[in-house]
Amino acid sequence: MKSNKTIASLLTMTLLFAFVLASLPLTAIVHATVTPITMLTHWNAVKESAYWEDITNYYETSVDTSVDITFEVVDFPDLYNEITLRHVAGNDPDIIHMHAMWIPAFANWKTMLLAEPPQAVQDNIKADFSPAAVSGVTYKGTVWGLPTEYNTWALVYNRVLIENKIDDPSTSADDKAFLTTTLNRLEANVTTGGYQPITWNDLKRAARLLTVWDTSTTPPTIVQNGFFPFVEGMPEEQRFQFMSLLWSNGGEYLDLSVPTTLFNSQSGYEVMQLYYDLGFSTPPETRAYDPLNIPDVWWTAWEEQSIALAILPTWMQYIREAMVENFYNMGVSVLPRGPSLDPGDFPTSLAYGWVMATTQKAVNDGKETAVWNFLNWLNTPMAAEAIPEATPGMRVEFGPVPRGAGCTILGDYLIADSIIPSRMSDQSTGVVLLGYEEGDGYPGDQILTDFWFEGFITIANLYGRPDKPFIKSEEVQAEIGLMFERVVLIGDDPTTAVDDAAATIQALLPMSGDIDLNGEVDIFEVVFLIVAVSTPAAIPGSSKWVRGRCDFNDDGIVDVLDIAIYIQNFGRTGDP
After folding, report:
1. 146: phi > 0 → left, psi -120 to 50 → alpha, else beta; which?
2. Which uninterrupted H or E stretch holds 32?
3. Cα 135 from Cα 244, distance rounded (Å)
């Protein structure tokens, strides 16, 4: 039997333990009930990981102590497959940062991977973000997440290389006059009225004049590229170039209401003929670039200032880093006007984006509120330098966050990566990071005073056109990339390459919606079609239900066109 002294000691220890427990900070008490939140993204550079570690640590200790946020990263080429494989395994992250064109593949009735954001979130996004960015993350009437990266395409040029050619005594008077006029048109502010883009013929002539060949070698080699096509990277970059020039030549890409390809037209043939003419004309000295040098010299050519003209997206941060102060020899202009573009129309650039979307698993696990609290915080305008730098030197390339008063954390991060933020207030309050001359991209200047951001933002907002996503976007894009490389790198006949791509894509398009509901297009689909066509849209929830299963052409309604697609594909099996 224990003595009274022992019992008293135990009682004293118990009371002391209770007192100490009650005195602990709240964060220590709630630690046992912390909600884990995972986010999958392709932001995997060392500086990016350090940045997000600072941000999440600050959020967990100063904003919401009840969550534990983990960033999981993969290389961009692996991201799509990683999302798919994790879903099959039932291991979806809570937040996915992904390309907006993948939304239909992950938001349809079969996968049910993504969750619809709360209506208040959707309404705020519609009100606060650039219309093209909002359109890019909208699928069948639903805004599927928070727009992040917002990019478009433009014609960039090296002003010094053009001026050097004008000043060269060997340049003819006619060529001097042409290059002077071309430079003036490129230099014109894209926001001024009456601005006239250069034509494709202007581009070809200028590119060939600005190409410098070393004829002492066998075969001759290029030491300065008059024009350099962007083929380094994923097929999406080739598709984006192609579609931007296609639209700027009066053409169209696809018609999903039929469905059919439209790019295998005069407008599309002319786009690929343009690239062919720039790289495969003879003799070699008339080429604007050498296919044998692609992509070997792509990364070094910017540092060496050996590219005069290129068609590029917004996010080329490494050009700024590679060229250092010579970066300010560059300029940004709208795309050149194609020969088949209606005289009353303006060249159009493809504007595409990325999205932070939440998963249905996160909702099922009761994390929706916590997840959107975090995402909304990232998207809240703050005072300048609202968050202190946690570790000196850790974010030397990003700095205290945010830099611009009224800018959001997410907007500030995107600007540091040379990406246009999707939120409109970030576009007006964001501050650049890299720069060398005050008033021209100097650290601390607003992005609208930086020629690169100003040019791309203006083009995106005035002449940008959002990419329309559909379920087979990724597979169709791969065929466009193959077509582009056949012409640019191998020199295949442009018309043949376009027609071959169109034939393959045409076979994919009937499956761009949800026509195959059970493995074969058969009588099973008729039941859903009858219900879909006859169900009034006014019944709550019914419209989304039937459209998700029977909107075969992805146009947002179930009608006679969907019935026609069903008839055309009756008996079809598999998924090409």
Report:
1. beta
2. none
3. 17
Residue 243: predicted pLDDT: 97
Sequence-distant (≥ 6) Cβ neighbours of residue 114 within 8 angstroms = 96, 103, 106, 107, 144, 145, 357, 358, 359, 360
Asked whether the beta carbons of 171 and 182 are under 8 A apart, the reply is no
pLDDT in tens, 399-458: 557 777 889 999 988 988 888 999 999 998 988 865 544 444 555 678 888 888 989 998
Which amino acid is located at 181 in the chain?
T
Average pLDDT in the 25-35 region? 54
C-alpha of 487 from chain center? 24
Whole-angstrom distance, CA of residue 539 vs CA of residue 557: 15
The token pair at 403 is 């830099």
Q: Sort 116 into a burial class: Cβ within 10 Å, 0-12 / 13-18 / 19+.
A: middle
State whether the Cα torsion 104-108-111-117 is positive or negative: positive
pTM of the model: 0.84
69 versus 27: the higher-pLDDT residue is: 69
Residue 527, Cβ neighbours under 10 Å: how many?
A: 11
Written as six digits, the tokens of 404 are 């611009």
- Angle between the 173-187 and 159-167 helix axes, to the nearest 10 degrees? 160
